[in-house]
Each structure stands twice: as C-alpha cells, then as structure tokens.
Specification:
Helix content is 5%, strand content 57%. With 766 residues, the chain is mainly beta.
C-alpha cells in the first residue's frame, strides 16, 4: 500500500511545482517627482520581454496584472524627465515599487526663471512660454543659435544669408525690429548700451543647455527693449569631475572650423569649485550676395573669420550660496561682398569683451540674486565705393561702445499664498563712432550716453491651491540721454551732402510705468487657460537720435526729438497636455503708440554709396495695431519618433499716421514692413540605435519691403534635414543640410540666400 502511494505523492509534488512556475503575478507601484515628491501623471511604463505597457494615473499609480513570474527589464519614460531602466524578479504574487523620476533635459513642464526672475514651473504662469532644451538643440537641423528659435511659435527669424549674417533678425509678436526683443545670456543682457542688435554668431550652440522664451511685453520686469518678448540663453553648468568635447566641421563654400569644450567640478556634498572653457572658430569663403541680373563688377564673395572664447568658474559654498564669474572674448570679421582696390574689400570687424559675476543665495526664506556686468565692443566697418560720377570713396567707421550695470532682486514668500519679488536694475552706457575718410580730410563723429534705472515689484498669488493663480507686477523706469554730439572735422566736398542736415542735440530723459496682470486657471493636470494684460516700452537708440549717415535702407537723418514707444497687449491662451501630446495656443491684441518707424522724406541724394539713396528718418508715427494667433503641437509617438508643428499669424498695421510730419504721404492703413502674415514650421525627430534623423519644413509668407506698401517680397518654403550616428561610443558624426531643394528667393534688398548648404561634423566626447 505504501509503495502504491509514493508515485502519486511525487506526481502531485511536480504538478504543484509546475503550477507555481506558470502562476501569475501583479506588478504595481507609484511614480513621483524626485524633487517635489508629487505624483507624476501619464508616465509611460513598459516591460520589454512581454512587449506590454501602461501609463500612470492621476495619483501616479500603475498596475500590470497576470504577469508570469520571472526576470524582466522595466523602462519608465516621461517627457521632461530622465528615462529610467531597471530589472525586477517576480517571485511573489504581488510586486510593489515606488519610483522617483529625476527631471531631465527635455523638460517641457519644467522650471523657468526668465518669466518671473525666480524659479517657477511653466504650468503655473499666465504667460506664453517657449522652451528649447538640449535634446532639441542636438536634434534640430540648425547651424546658428537663433535658427533653433523657429521651433517656437510667434517668433520671426530672418537669417536670409545664413552664417554670413552676424546679427540675424529675431522679432516677436508682429514687431519688425530685433531691438524689440531682449536677449539675455544666463540672465545678463547681451546687447550693447541702447538695445542694438545682438551678434548671434558669437553664441556656440554646443554650449547651450536650454533656451527660455517669454512672448509678449515684459517691461514690467525687464524695462526697455522687452516690448516683443525676452529670450534667455542658459549655458551648460559643469557637473562631472572632468568632461570634454572636441568638434571639427566642414561645409559648403569652404566653411570649416571647430570647437573645444572642457569642464570640471569638485562639488561634493553641495560644496566645491567648478570651471569650464568653450572655444569656437569658424572660417568660410562665402558667396556673392546679388543675382547676376543685379551684380556689379565690384561685387565679390562674402567671407567670415570668427574666433570666440568663453571662460567660466564658480564656487558653491553650500546648497544655499553660489557665486560665478564668466568672461567672453570675440574677434569676428565678416566680408560685406564688395571690393574695389583694398585687399579685404568692405568688411565688418567686431571685437567684443563681456565680463559678468553672479550670486545666487538663500537667506531664511528669501531668495537673492545679484549680477554685475561690463561689456566693451569695438567695431571697424571698412567701406569703399565708386559713385556714378566716377569718384572713389574709402573710409573706416570706428565705433566704441561700452556699458556696465548691476541687476539684483529678492523673492520672499508671504504667508501661504504670496511670493513677492522686488528688485533694482541699472545700466550705464556710452557710444562714440567716427567715420574716418581715407580719401579726404573728413572725420564724421557722433556720440552719446544712455543710462537706465528701474525699480519693480511683483506678486505671485495662489488664489485656489492647484487651481487658480495670478501674477501682478509693476515697474518704474528712468532713462537719461546726455552728452550728445554730432560733428564733422575738416569737412571737404566728400561730406558736403551732410552739412544741410547737421542739427543741435539736446539732453533728455524719459519715464515709463509698465504694469502687468495675469490669471491662470487649471481645470486638471492636462488643461489650463490663462489671460493677461501687459505694457511695454522702448526708448530711442543713440544711433537714431545722434547719427546722420548711410544705413542699409538709405541715408538716415538723426532725430533728437524721438520719443519712447509704448505698447499695450492683452492675450489669452491654453495649454493642453495628455500623455505624449502637448498643444499650446495663444491669441493676442496689441496697440502701439509713438511707434518709431523709418519713413522717407521724399528726397534722394548721392552719399558715399554707389547709387542715389533715399533720405529717411526715424519718426514716431503715432498708433499701430497688431493682432495675431499662435499654436504649437508636439506629439511623441514612441521612444523613437516624435512630430512637432507650429503656426503663427500676424497682422501689423499703421492705424494713425501724423501727416503734419510728412505732408506728401499718408501711411494710415499701411502694413509694417518685414512682417510676414503667416509662418509655418513642422518636422519630425527619429532616434534609434542605428542613427538619429530629423527633417523640418519652414514656410514664410510674403511681406512688404517699403513703407508705402508698393514693393512686396515673395514668400518662400524651405526644407532642412539632419542625420547623425554615434560610433565607437565616444564619436558622433552628423550632416546638416539646409535648403535641401536649393530654393531661390530674394530678401527686401534684392539679395540672395546662400542656397543649399551642407555642414558635416565629427565630435569626440571624453
């Protein structure tokens, strides 16, 4: 009997063992933010071996049922956070895990500083915001730093000459001058003295960590020059003991160069020293700017020679106190595409020195920021020309500009629902410019000083926790214009055309009050809407008030009576985020008063240029109406493929024109020049273990080239692409192709773009 029972016992034992091997388990858990411990909704969790996936709910919870026991690899992804991969071994009926995700480079729902001058989450701000992170910078086919901005709706980037255009034109919200957009680098203003155009070619994209864009008037925080918006380029901060990247590139028109980035950090336990150096050089033979139908015998290829170096060091005392210093040196020369007798022809050489020191600290509940900066810019613009009467003119324009400033602010929470930010900004600047004629005795000089002082106060209010928030603020600015002068030493017949236009210059000052108020309502974690009102202002530039002379559009007269221009803006928008889809949209309406605008006097004269030039003058033309709409979308299909698109509509029109200034013309109902009505940007990014690729399409509609709207510049459509591959773990090879189909179009001055442009690079990381 006993012998007969034993086989059954053995059979039952192995049967139960087999059942346990094929029994099912439950795998569940919670995903939270590593810094705030708040639950993360719509995080993507996948089990590689089973090819199954799910998303976290509103409480950050997830659950997989009926999972066979065994060993698995788990991957967790969420836009804005670092991917997390780990292994589990299911041996029990229930496996529970609590996981924290660390914010990563592609953090759309990220912390932003520019909008309020203190750290805030983008979803808590009633303003239109755009962010370009390191992941996008590496993926998008672009060569210069400003070209990446096409990813954000509402921004008009005019870089018709590619790398052969040092400043570029970056405008926002239907405005047509780049002086309306304030460019910051690590929170410090990058332009010189009076808001002149910044040199985007100085900025090495390899050194950019993130770009923050605040659209619409922001004078309530930043004063003059923030009428259209603010762009803050945030550079990389060293985090490793030692890291380096070396890159070389070669492209069309014999374009070649390279960059070297070295950095290190000794920070341990929130204390230590860090440093970084970034060097960037570029050379190119360039191309002829004019088509054959307009080309003259003196037209030659442009060229460029760029040398840029940035040094950075900092010390972190503890998690509450940090100081940092940065020095940028640049020596850039760009040919203007004309040569008569001089070996280098017409060119523009720029020497730039930029030093700044910053402190970030926390004392009690107060967050303190202070920055001091000094900038010096020396420019040599060499020009030679032959007039139609055969006379030859050769001159150098030497411009010396410098400014220094101090910016500081304090943010302090009050009770549970208020955060006050108050601060002081000051900037003192001076410019002296001289046209020194080599073919005569003449020296034409203008000079002036502009000082800016601003006080501001802002309150970030939580009205209903996690539902209703508001920001209100106001700023008072004082601008002083003094020591103006414009004169001609040893005048001859060469400059006689200027003598009738010499005028006395007077010192002046202006005051401005810039308020802001915004309201944000969150329906849920996926949808929020906002409404805001803001005012902006911009004072006149030293050049417009003091200098009479040649500019691109003609012969410009100084106007010392220019008044500041103002804009009032109201806008509303929404942000929708669900799983891997993000949609943002904004509509706005603006009224501009005392707008400064180039208008022709009706006269034309021969100047130092080859052809007769129209006489123009910057004037306050009274009232301008601007309205528009913006929408952007980003869709992540999976870990390999994502799509993005944006559309911008602008209507910019002069509504009232003061005909007492120019009796011969009336610009009422005319459209602002250089403002396209429509802009479309779309593309995709593909990533795999084999290679990475991206392609984008850019469409820009027609725009007006003259103030009377008689000349229209045709629209154009361009395709760009990039492909890259990592080899031998430390090397990355990439090829960028801009204007793939070699589309030919002309800018408002009849000049050509560079056409199809290739750039191949090899980067070594160590």
């Amino acid at each position: 009997m006993t012998r007969n029972v034993k086989p059954y016992i053995i059979f039952i034992f192995f049967f139960l063992l087999g059942l346990s091997a094929f029994s099912q388990s439950i795998f569940k858990g919670t995903i939270t933010h590593a810094y705030t411990n708040s639950p993360i909704q719509h995080a993507y969790i996948s089990i590689k071996e089973l090819n199954v996936n799910t998303y976290t709910g509103t409480n950050g919870n997830f659950e997989f049922k009926d999972i066979p026991k065994g060993d698995y690899h788990i991957k967790v992804k969420k836009i804005g956070f670092q991917d997390t991969v780990f292994s589990i071994k299911l041996i029990s009926e229930t496996y529970i895990i609590n996981l924290s995700l660390t914010p990563g480079s592609y953090e759309m729902d990220s912390v932003i500083v520019t909008a309020t001058r203190n750290e805030k989450n983008t979803t808590d701000l009633p303003v239109s915001i755009g962010i370009i992170n390191r992941e996008l910078i590496q993926a998008i086919p672009a060569i210069t730093a400003d070209e990446y901005l096409v990813y954000i709706s509402g921004i008009n980037i005019s870089r018709h000459f590619g790398i052969f255009y040092k400043t570029g034109d970056v405008t926002m919200r239907g405005l047509n001058r780049n002086v309306y957009t304030l460019l910051l680098i690590d929170g410090i203003p990058a332009s010189i003295v009076d808001g002149g155009a910044a040199n985007w070619n100085r900025i090495n994209p390899e050194n950019i960590r993130k770009v923050e864009v605040i659209k619409g008037p922001n004078s309530s925080l930043y004063g003059s020059n923030a009428m259209g918006g603010v762009i803050n380029i945030i550079t990389k901060k060293p985090t490793q003991a030692f890291k380096g990247d070396a890159k070389i590139f070669y492209g069309t028109y014999n374009t070649y160069g390279g960059s070297l980035n070295l950095s290190g950090s000794t920070i341990k336990n929130e204390k230590g020293f860090y440093w970084a150096t970034d060097g960037f050089v570029r050379r190119s033979n360039g191309y002829v700017l004019y088509p054959d139908s307009l080309k003259e015998s003196t037209d030659v290829a442009t060229y460029l020679n760029e040398n840029n170096l940035t040094l950075r060091s900092g010390f972190q005392f503890n998690k509450h106190h940090n100081i940092e210093m940065q020095l940028t040196l640049s020596d850039n020369t760009m040919g203007a595409g004309r040569k008569i007798f001089e070996e280098k022809g017409n060119y523009d050489r720029d020497l730039f020195y930029f030093w700044n020191a910053r402190y970030n600290g926390t004392i009690g509940k107060a967050k303190i920021y202070a920055a001091a900066f000094y900038k010096y810019n020396w420019n040599d613009a060499q020009k030679e020309s032959i007039k139609q009467n055969g006379s030859y003119t050769f001159l150098n324009t030497y411009t010396n500009s410098n400014d220094k400033g101090l910016w500081c602010n304090v943010s302090l929470p009050f009770k549970q629902n208020h955060t006050f930010t108050f601060g002081l900004d000051s900037k003192i600047g001076k410019t002296t410019s001289s046209d020194i004629y080599r073919t005569s005795t003449d020296t034409v000089t203008y000079q002036g000083n502009l000082d800016y002082y601003g006080l501001y106060l802002q309150d970030d209010i939580v009205i209903i926790k996690n539902k209703l928030k508001s920001i209100v603020g106001v700023r008072s600015d004082l601008v002083n214009f003094y020591n103006p002068d414009f004169y001609i030493d040893a005048p001859s017949g060469i400059t006689s055309f200027m003598l009738p236009y010499l005028t006395s210059l007077k010192e002046k000052n202006w005051k401005a009050i810039s308020p802001k108020a915004g309201l944000l309502y969150k329906f849920n974690d996926s949808l929020s809407v906002y409404l805001n009102f803001s005012k902006g202002f911009r004072s006149a530039t030293l050049s417009d008030m003091c200098k009479t002379g040649d500019v691109n559009k003609g012969f410009k007269l100084a106007n010392p009576d220019l008044k500041p221009e103002f804009i009032s803006n109201i806008e509303s928008g929404f942000i929708y985020k669900y799983r891997n889809l993000e949609i943002e949209s904004t509509v706005f309406y603006s009224i501009g008063k005392n707008f400064q605008y180039f208008v022709g006097t009706g006269d034309s004269i021969y100047t130092t240029k080859t052809k007769k030039q129209p006489v123009i003058k910057r004037e306050n033309i009274s009232r301008v109406e601007i309205y528009g709409a913006e929408i952007s979308m980003h869709l992540t299909i999976n870990s390999k493929l994502s799509f993005f698109a944006n559309y911008t509509f602008n209507h910019s029109q002069i509504k009232d024109f003061d005909t007492t200034i120019f009796i011969s013309k009336n610009l009422t109902d005319k459209f602002l020049i250089d403002v396209p009505t429509h802009r479309i940007f779309s593309g995709f990014i593909y990533k795999s273990n084999l290679f990475n690729a991206s392609m984008v399409h850019k469409y820009v509609s027609a725009s007006w080239a003259d103030d009377e709207n008689t000349i229209k510049v045709k629209g154009y459509s361009l395709f760009d692409a990039k492909i890259s591959k990592k080899v031998f773990s430390d090397f990355n090879i990439s090829i960028i192709a801009e204007n793939i189909f070699n589309t030919v179009y002309l800018d408002s001055k009849g000049m050509l773009p560079p056409g199809r442009f290739f750039l191949a690079s090899i980067q070594y990381s160590f």
